[in-house]
Design a protein that fits this description.
The chain is mainly α. The protein folds into two domains: 116 residues; 36 residues, no CATH class. The longest helix is centred in the middle third of the chain and has 38 residues. The radius of gyration is 20 Å and the shape is globular. The N and C termini lie far apart (42 Å). 9% of the residues are buried.
Length: 184
Amino acid sequence: MATTTPVHPVDEVPPVRQLAAFGLQHVLAMYAGAVAVPLIVGGAMKLSPADLAYLITADLLICGIATLIQCVGFWRFGVRLPIMQGCTFAAVSPMVLIGTTGGGLPAIYGSVIVAGLAIVLLAPVFGRLLRFFPPLVTGTVILIIGISLLPVAGNWAAGGAGAADFGEPKNLALAGFVLAVVLG
C-alpha cells in the first residue's frame, strides 16, 4: 500500500481555475502599481501624451527586467522567488521635485541611476541594519507614504482634477470596480 506524505500548505498547488484567477489579480495589481507612478510624475511635470507614454513604457520595461532578475537571479542579485518588481511610491515626491525644478526627465533618470548604484554599494551595510527596523517601523513608513498619496487617489477616482465630469457617480463607480478587481 503506497502512502503519500502530506503536503505543507505553502507547497500546495491550487487548481488551475484558482491559479488563473490569482494570476490575473496579480497582473492587474502589478500593472496598476507600475503605471501609477509614471502617471503621477508625468502629470505633475505636465508632459505631453507622447512623453507620458514613453515614461510609462520605460517604467514597464525596467520593471520587467528587475522582475526577471529577482525571479531567475543573476550572480548575487535576486531572491529567486516569483515576485514582481515595480516603482516605489516613496520616490514620487523627489522625482516630481527634480522634474519640475528645471531638471526634467534626464535629471530624474540620472538621479535614479546614481541612487541605484549607491544602494547596490551600500546593500551590505543596510543588510546589517535590518534588525533595527521592525515591522512596526517599516509599516508606519509605508502607511505615511500611502496617506500622502490619498489626495492624488481621490482626484483620480473622481475623474481627474479639472475634468468636466469631476465627481460624477460613473467615475466613482469605475474607481470602485477597479478597486474590487485589484483587491479581489
